[in-house]
Amino acid sequence: MIDVHCHILPALDDGALDLDDAIEMARQAQSDGIDTVCATPHIRHDHDVVIAELADRVSALAGELAMRGVDVRIVGGGEVAESALPGLDDAELRAVTLGGGGRWILLEPAPGPLAATLDAAVDDLTRRGFRSLIAHPERHAHGDLAGHLTRLVDRGALVQVTAAFLEHEHAAPTILDLADRGLVHILGSDAHSSRAGRPVALSAGLATLGRAKRLAPHLDWVASQAPAAILAGEDVSPPFPPVRSG
């Protein structure tokens, strides 16, 4: 399995507190059967993340994991806030593409209901040669969430949900409804620390996602095939198109 959304780089944003925390997060991933973790620090105005430093930070963490015998591959990326997008040039965006594949941006919606500004951000990325992976839309379950996500998928975006929320009694029904509508494509842990909050784990959420009949035959695509293609910078076409209401 591949985790495309994880705040594992130490002492950077609101993720791993220090190196030991990051190492333990990688151990969580290994225990869960995750072989690759995408380091996705926040790229937004309230976090002082220097994009030019990220490649060295990823390499340093990968080296520490190898020395400590943790068999998890760390690759680069970033969680780009839609509000930060206008201030980033194409080279900066390529530097935070998932896996360094040069194509896919993990795009964080603005707080509150999904808005037209997110559509504009997806369109802007498309014009600039990128594709969008929408992060954790279950946090924005207001109004016609399914309809809005359908429009974004029609624009070429894919949708990433948080694995741990599939174990949450309030969030799980929303995610499973989206899955049954063909609007869930990728799982991410969105883990921030080994010491509190969500673990670096996907397997339990993936098992719950299997309750959605539309996705049940495609769990390997969700957990491995699609994220591998994203990290490689390839085009990705879901094997299940969105269900259109009416």
Walk me through what this model shows.
The structure is a single chain. The protein is of the alpha/beta class. The protein has one domain (2-231): TIM Barrel (Alpha-Beta Barrel), CATH 3.20.20.140. Helix content is 35%, strand content 14%. The chain has helices spanning 19-32, 54-67, 90-95, 116-127, 145-154, 172-180, 203-209, 219-231, and strands at residues 2-6, 36-39, 42-43, 73-75, 79-81, 104-108, 131-135, 158-162, 186-188. The radius of gyration is 17 Å and the shape is globular. It starts with a strand and ends in a 15-residue tail after the last helix.
Characteristic key phrases:
single chain; 246 residues; alpha/beta; TIM Barrel; six-stranded parallel sheet; three-stranded parallel sheet; 8 helices; 35% helix; globular
Give the CA-CA distance, first to last residue: 36 Å
Q: Give the number of domains.
A: 1
CATH topology: TIM Barrel
Radius of gyration: 17 Å
CATH architecture descriptor text: Alpha-Beta Barrel
Strand order, sheet with most strands: 3-5-6-7-8-9
- Note the overall shape: globular
User: What's the multimeric state?
Assistant: single chain
Secondary-structure class: alpha/beta
H and E order: EHEEHEEHEHEHEHEHH
Query: What is the CATH superfamily label?
Result: Metal-dependent hydrolases
Task: Return the CATH class.
Answer: Alpha Beta
Helix content: 25-40%
Topology readout:
Blueprint: E1 2-6, H1 19-32, E2 36-39, E3 42-43, H2 54-67, E4 73-75, E5 79-81, H3 90-95, E6 104-108, H4 116-127, E7 131-135, H5 145-154, E8 158-162, H6 172-180, E9 186-188, H7 203-209, H8 219-231
Parallel strand pairs: 1-2, 2-4, 3-5, 5-6, 6-7, 7-8, 8-9
